[in-house]
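I would love for you to help me understand the pair of lines that follows before we discuss the fold together.
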Amino acid sequence: MLPPYDQRVATEHRLLVRATALPVVPTNVVAALLVYAYFNYINPLIGPAQPEIQQFLLFAAVATTLITANVFLSARWHGSLRRWARWLREGLEASQVPADVRRRALNAPLVNAVLTMASWLVAAIFYFPYLILVADVDIGEASRSFLGLVIVAGPVTSAMSFLVSEFYWRRQIPLFFPDGRVDRRGVLRIPIRVRMGATFLVTAVFPLMLMLTVDLSVAQRLWGELPPELAVLWGKFMRTQTFIVSVSLVASMAMALLAARFINRPVQALRAAMARVSTGDLDVAVPVRSTDELGELNEHFNVMLGDLRRARVVGELFGRYVSPQVAHAALERGVAFGGEVVRATALFADLRGFTALTERLSPAHVVGLLNQYYQIVEQVCGRESGIITQFLGDGVVVVFGGPLVPVEDHARRAVRAGVALQRELAKHNQGEEEESLEAGIGICTGDIIAGNLGSSSRVTYTVVGDAVNQAARLQVKTREFPESILVTASTFEAFGDHDGLRFKSCGSVPLKGIAAPVEIYAVEV
């Protein structure tokens, strides 16, 4: 989860935000003034002189009309975005924002660029016939004005509108996507390669093309008036300029493609690797091809993947040393000392005659039998949502209804697990006379304390309490009864409907360490 939107951003840069809230205004105004100055003072069009006030009023009228229309359309597009952004800053949940509004936030820079380019195209279409029919300007000069608006001024202003708008909206995107998961469906994306190419074109090629048009304009004005010697010199000058512009165009585009490739390839490789990691595949590496920031980024990504692979191994090992529920809780919440008092059911299961087995069998054989026994306990208790908290040699402690997996019918689940355990052991023992496994099971329902106990260097998740003690003592007591499953009266009462099981009252019996005798029941398997 990304940090919440910092409200101080809006206050620290309020002036900048206001200036760029409608980036079509400042960029178009500045560009229009520059174009007006260029075609009226720097390199004016050839034609009949017109009153300066008339030219300025016409320019002001057209520019104001187009910019006003642009602002109106932009406001219509961005109005809902600003309302939702204000509500989000006031505490509205981002999940309540409609999907189409979120897409507008992502498409806003491109929309501003399109609106700006459309305005300049309309202006060029208006001025071209005006210059020919009204201002009586030569068609060549009118074409120079038209191309200057469409090929130079329009694209440059649109690019600036896009960049300024994106600068503004990138600060607003975390409002609409606070979790960092940007939905790209319905969003027009502009790849890095296209951005780099457009930047090189605007900054490196357009100025040279503009200089070439100036030279052509001067040549048109002076053609036929230059002496032969100067005409030859001017021709060489024009060939030189054309050559420089052509070579610069090819070189700039080649450099743009190479620079974009140098940036795009590592980014795409990183993007593909991250997509595989998101699916759980950590066996991936990103090639490091440079010593710049992108190479360093990919190198750090590979280091991070190595750490993730080691963490996955640690997590798998952790999940084997403790139950998966305990491991999951520790990874999510961290390790906090203390316990939680809950009403649950504890089950103790202990192998009978285990000491005799260890005397008859080799250590490796004993370990194999214990692993089979633990496997059976884990399977039958897991089906009933029981959590194994401890392996005690040949004994197992299981809790049903603890805070990690709370269930209402924990007593019923514990008894069913005990019966299933005995039946699975009976299946295992078929044909195994010397390696038969028999278990004594004690079950008690009551208040227990479940939580992390230990020291600063070692922690264990366990359950303690009177109910746990009674279950442990009942397991020992099974050696004195023909039945192998004993439950307390609290478990018997919480079990409810017998569900086909038969319980036999064994009366009140004393348990070691328990002050008063405990009423118990035997479960007939």
